[in-house]
Amino acid sequence: MPLTYREFNAFCGGLPAATYVVQWGGAHVWKVGGKVFAIGGWARGEHPGITFKVSDIGFEMLREAPGCRPAPYLASRGMKWIQSFERGLGKKELKLYLKGSHALVAAGLSRKKRAELGL
Questions:
Q1: Cα torsion angle, 100, 57, 73, 50, sign
Q2: Which residue spans within 16-110 are E strands per DSSP?
Q3: pLDDT of residue 42
Q4: What are the structural domain ranges in the chain?
Q5: Integer Cα distance of 81 and 62 in angstroms
Q6: What is the model's pLDDT at position 2?
Q7: C-alpha torsion angle, residues 35, 38, 39, 43 (rounded to 10)
Q8: What integer pLDDT is reported at residue 38 of this predicted model?
Q9: Of the CATH numbers 3.20.20.105, 3.90.1150.30, 3.40.50.720, 3.30.2010.10, which one belongs to the domain with range 5-111?
Q10: Which helix (H) or strand (E) holds 4?
Q11: Rounded to whole angstroms, how far apart are CA atoms 7 and 11?
Q12: Which residues lie below 8 Å from residue 104, measured CB to CB, with a gap of 6+?
């Protein structure tokens, strides 16, 4: 069963230095250091499509997995982002990927920015 918006927002909100904004037509967008690490939205009902950054290996593993696809817009520009939708990743696995996305994005911040955020 996929995450609900409530579960998605609660989990992302518990990650270090995470901030939340609603943008892009009502999507639930989570950032660290001003950089996006997760997007929930663009799906009807209580289970959003969840979009997150992955490593090169993660992208190869997930891009053709059932219920997953290269993230619209982001992946078409060469970025390694996956969207899990409908009956995609389970809650536990999705939370691991969200935590990994947060870590990947945080690692890309400057040393100074990471220190300011306590990361």
A1: negative
A2: 18-23, 27-32, 35-41, 49-53, 68-70, 81-84
A3: 63
A4: 5-111
A5: 10
A6: 75
A7: 170
A8: 97
A9: 3.90.1150.30
A10: none
A11: 6
A12: 37, 53, 54, 55
Query: Buried b / exposed e across 46-75, counting CB within 10 Å, b at 16+?
Result: ebbbbbbbbeeebbeebeeeeebbbbeebb
Report which of 12, 36, 11, 41 is spatially closest to residue 25, judged by C-alpha positions.
41
pLDDT tens digits, one per residue of 17-29 = 999 999 988 899 9
Which amino acid is located at 60 in the chain?
A: E
CA distance 1 to 48: 12
Question: Which regions of the chain are under pLDDT 50?
Answer: none
| pLDDT in the model for residue 105 | 96
The tokens describing 11, both together, are: 């989990």
| pLDDT score for 48 | 73
Instruction: Calculate the alpha carbon distances from 80 to 87, 100, 104, 117 in Å.
Output: 21, 13, 11, 24
Contact 62, 52 (CB under 8 A): no
